[in-house]
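Quick board copy: two proteins, each given as sequence then tokens.
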Amino acid sequence: MNEKIYYWSPIKHWEKLHNEVLIGEMRFTGILSEWFPEFYFMAQKGVKISELVERFSL
């Protein structure tokens, strides 16, 4: 079975400020903010869930 490939929506703006990430109107801190910008670049190219789990599993 082929895994779906997910992409970052180019209309969803994000910005990293200090120890948080703003994605659209939502604010994220903690581990998610540490994953940026690598998470974004992976999703921009297209990424499978299994690749994200492999790279970012706790």
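And the next:
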Amino acid sequence: MLFNKDTVQMQAVRYALRPTEGYGHFFILASAQSGITTTDGLKDVEIGVSQGTVIEYVTDRLLEAAGLTADEIKTIAVPKIPDRMALLASGELKAGVLPDPLASLAVGQGAVIVADDSSHPEYGFSVLSFRKDVIDAHPKAVRAFLAAIEEATTLLNADPAKYANVLSEQKLVPPPLIGKFQVPPFPSAGVPTEEEWNDALAWAKGKGMLTVDVSYADSVNAALLP
């Protein structure tokens, strides 16, 4: 979105990950020492996030959906995830937001899940994007890439245990989670909706990150999907 504020440079061509029931992507966690277990307990509590990112966006939207007002949502910049995890574990930070699988690791160390985006997949998804000039110059290659992603998605979703060794071989999850972490279902071919785009755009403008409307039609391209 930010890449396209002046001219179209990037296009989202597919969902990469999208939360589903029982499989969140981003988690609002409370430290074990905080005593916080519900979203009401997060009113006026500083929540560690990486500001100006999807993590801050998801935090705002999940807490708003839970009934908190903008004035009751307090975030503090803790850009580095290892720092966020360490501060949560020590109790110096009462709450913080982490992506999985690091959220699962933090829970194993005592953190408490207060909310996650599995009930609001419209907020916590990620996308695959290409530069517009690459799409224009090599559409067949991009289509082939997306076809391969679709094939891999089908195989993984059909039998995730068959490919569990990839998690350790490619160091995709922390060692303590090997054999424990459940791979989430991957989304089938699709792109963000215009409603999802407009909500993220409104948030970015509200934060002062953008001052102009960025076109959904120019920035999201579903034409290359298999």
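Board note added afterward: DSSP finds eight helices and seven strands in the chain.
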